Amino acid sequence: MGTLHVALQEGFARDRVVVKLNGAEVANRPEVTTRNQIGFAEAVELDVPEGEATVEVEVPTQNLSATVRVAVEGKTYVGASIEHGHLELRAQREAFGYL
User: Fold this and answer.
1) Which class for 72: exposed (0-12), middle (13-18), buried (19 or more C-beta within 10 A)?
2) Residue pLDDT, tens place only, 58-94
3) pTM of the full predicted structure?
4) Which residues have CB under 8 Å from 78's CB, separation 6+?
5) Rounded CA gap, 70 and 55, in Å?
């Protein structure tokens, strides 16, 4: 098994956020707000089988969504930020740093 860590980062302001893994809803948060001092709102951490996975993040309150395919191996991190009216997802192997 691997661990998928989805970090909701910049640009959230009392937004509803839905996280889907391979088309199935795995998290539904009603009021996500970024803590501007550290650029982080909250995280969803899931135990998932290793291999290819599709992560989708929806922000219905801003009519935004984005999808990324990731190769889950051990711990895999996906960051979601709203920047300039777009939802951006990025995957990486290292944990995100917050101050």
Assistant:
1) buried
2) 999 999 999 999 999 999 999 999 999 999 999 999 9
3) 0.94
4) 4, 5, 6, 7, 55, 68, 70, 89, 90, 91
5) 7
Contact 16, 61 (CB under 8 A): yes
Dihedral of CA 64/29/50/75: which sign?
A: positive
The structural domains of the chain, with segments of one domain joined by +, span 2-92
Q: Which two tokens stand for residue 62?
A: 């801003």
Count of C-beta atoms within a 10 Å radius of residue 49: 10
| 18: nearest Cα among 55, 49, 51 | 55
Contact 66, 87 (CB under 8 A): yes
- The CATH number assigned to the domain with range 2-92 reads 2.60.40.2890
